[in-house]
Amino acid sequence: MAEGWGRKIFGGKVQVYSAGIETHGLNPLAMQVMAEVGIDISAQVAKLVTDLPVSHFDLVITVCGHAHEHCPLFSGGTEVVHYGFDDPPFLAKNETDPEVILGHYRRVRDEICDYIQTLNQGGS
């Protein structure tokens, strides 16, 4: 979701990539709630940092505690910032009501949007 928001909010002003320390595939509920706000992330794929087409980053933002704790070291003055978000699959794992489940995804989707908008305004 963060990559989708980053591409939408920044347009072509910056290169936005998303990668993890593990790959789990693209979550269909994340695709659904992003489509609700007009952002198609269906072409995105789960990837590792080593899969990205570049090796130098000006800014790396970790969005979950596990990634932050196991984030690889980056050289060349890369700024690493942690801004944690709740994990929608974890929040929804014991839920049975589809609307409650989607509510977790929508809340986190909107929180990610709000945070990325602050980056677009120069804050971090």
Structural notes for this entry:
- The structure is a single chain.
- The chain has 5 helices and 2 strands, in the order H-H-E-H-E-H-H.
- With 124 residues, it is mostly helical.
- It has one domain: Response regulator (Rossmann fold, 3-Layer(aba) Sandwich), CATH 3.40.50.
- It has a two-stranded parallel ribbon.
- Helix 1 packs across helix 5 and helix 2 packs across helix 5.
- The longest helix is centred in the last third of the chain and has 23 residues.
- It is globular.
- The two termini are 18 Å apart.
Task: Outline the secondary-structure elements.
Elements: H1 2-10, H2 28-36, E1 59-62, H3 65-70, E2 79-82, H4 88-92, H5 98-120
Parallel strand pairs: 1-2
**How does the overall form come out from the CA principal axes?**
globular
Portion in beta strands: 5-15%
- What is the assembly state of the chains in this entry? single chain
Q: Could you say how many structural domains there are in total?
A: 1
Global mean pLDDT: 89
Largest sheet: 2 strands, parallel
N-to-C SSE string, H for helix and E for strand: HHEHEHH
CATH homolog superfamily? Response regulator
Number of strands: 2
Discrete helix count: 5
